[in-house]
Amino acid sequence: MKKLLAAIALAMVPTLSLAHSMSPGFEVEYAITPTIKKTYTLTNEYNECDKVFKVEVFNKDWTPADGWRTKKDTYKLKSGSKREIEIEFKADGVRKLLVCTTLVEIGKDGKKASIISRVCSRLIINDVSG
Amino acid sequence: MKTLVIASIIASVTASASFATNWNTDGSVNWGGNSGGYNTVGCKYKDQDTGVMTLAEDSLVWKTTKAATIRVRSYGQGNIQITTNNVLTDGTTDYTVVVDYTGDAPATSSLTGSKISSPQINSNMISYQTAQTGRTKSVIKIGGTATMTDATSDEIKNNEDYTITHTVTCLQ
After folding, report:
1. What pTM was estimated for this model as a whole?
2. I need a labelling partner for A100 at 20 to 30 A (CA). Which of A68, B56, B79, B162 fits?
């Protein structure tokens, strides 16, 4: 019997690697204007090379959300560095969103990440602009 | 005159503070301090360990013989989810498979951690809730099966490394 071996991708990075973090966490906002801007701080806590993170916003049911924009979809961060990301959201009724940053690439040559860490902050926007 | 009045007030307050409490029998004193931002809200990961899956001749099912492992530490109420995009890849070509975290395999999935709540190991997701207060630490073992279609199995090459990626999501 011939066996093919393959690694499940959760571990091609060295042990004791950390991940990335994003702040703030869960927040409730009241929008008095048609749009609202939020700033999230993304930190690359991996203890080795550069990493590329993708910004995504989902609805509560994990479907891709409309009505948001940011200057860039992806951000390259060196190990231990931080970046402030400003995201503008449309305020329309009550929006329950998941604001996520996802590891997508490793290193300067853009190698695809074999372990994917994703950090998502819950955000509720209440449109009170009347 | 103004200076004299201020000096008198200071002297009066100091005297009051010094002699406000009487002698007592309680010999205890405290150290006081604020923890500030000791914990980063959200998750940190470590000790990622590679899992191994094997494919028997003519089988459509990859089975884990060693579960992939990851340790997660989180602070604050939240939710941890392990999911997959159900893609088997050799790095060049992607094939759709069906991952089952509850599938019958030598290495199975498990969740351990004293403060985790609502642990669930379903066919397509592993998840748990973190504690409302303090840190929640867990060890997640990811095992199970991945089933290919007949068409995909026809494309499998001998002695090739294949990978299935899993995503760890920290919802804070």
Report:
1. 0.76
2. B162
